[in-house]
Amino acid sequence: MSDEKILDEKIGRLVRSIDKNVPPAVEEKIKAAAALLHPRPRFFKLRRPLMITLVPSAAAILLAAVLLLPLFQKPQQPISEIRTEFEIADKNIKIIFFQKPDFNLFKED
Amino acid sequence: MTISDTLFWDYLAPIKHKLYNYIHKSLNFSQDADDVFQETILRAFQYFRSFQKDKNFSAWLFSIAHNEVKRSFKKSRRQSLVLNSDALKSTVANPSDELVREVYRFAGRLKPREREIFFLFYESGFSIAEISDISGLKEGHIKLLLFQARNHLKKIIGAQNE
Predict the structure, then answer these.
(1) Residues in contact with B130: Cβ distance below 8 Å, sequence separation at least 6, in sequence order
(2) pTM for this structure?
(3) Which chain A residues are within 8 Å of B92, Cβ to Cβ?
(4) Domains and CATH numbers, chain B
(5) Contact criterion met (CB below 8 Å) for A63 and A76
(6) What span, in angstroms and rounded, lies between the C-alpha atoms of B129 and B134?
(7) Do B49 and A18 touch (CB under 8 A)?
(8) CB atoms closer than 10 angstroms to residue A87
């Protein structure tokens, strides 16, 4: 046996010469606490594999929704008229201009 | 009590004594050691379902204990925790055994992590590979720590034997 192993055995013996037994009171206390403690439900064990599957799936669905959303939207309606209002309050006058696609306001005939 | 619970207590029974001593010695026989022991067992009990039964239960339990000891140091900032010599006095079988005291004085002066390695090796009898698994330290680092401890204690043991 090498010197190192002999020394290790000697140190080990010295270290283990102090030996403490688990007090019965401590043991009882632990068992009582354990009885109240419920082991973590199986869900927590499955949480990680569930998350690994669910999180990327949710992200893919969200991305697809964002990309496909414009396809399901109604096309924008063309502007049918432009309305411009002027009001002269003290004269009680209100002037309203309507600009329609078939009537160009600034076009001379 | 479920089958899993019964199995846990069956697995624990042969090593609880070793675990108790490891925690007490790593914490320099501090009064918190009983609480740390309790926390370790309760945590292990809680997570026992995630323990793969083909693995080494002892190493798994001691890695939980290692984390609890570390947590205890962080919580109470007892990095410089001094050896509880009263507790040592009450546990030394032969009070005149100065060599045992010297070994424990030496261990008491070590940094918490080094002391844990020291006791995992000399008290609990784990191999360097197992200590590496438990503590997360590299095997080279553990070998160096043990080499230093061995060198230091060699002088003490040698001087006492002369």
Answers:
(1) B56, B59, B120
(2) 0.67
(3) 17-18
(4) 3-161 (1.20.140.160)
(5) no
(6) 9
(7) no
(8) 10
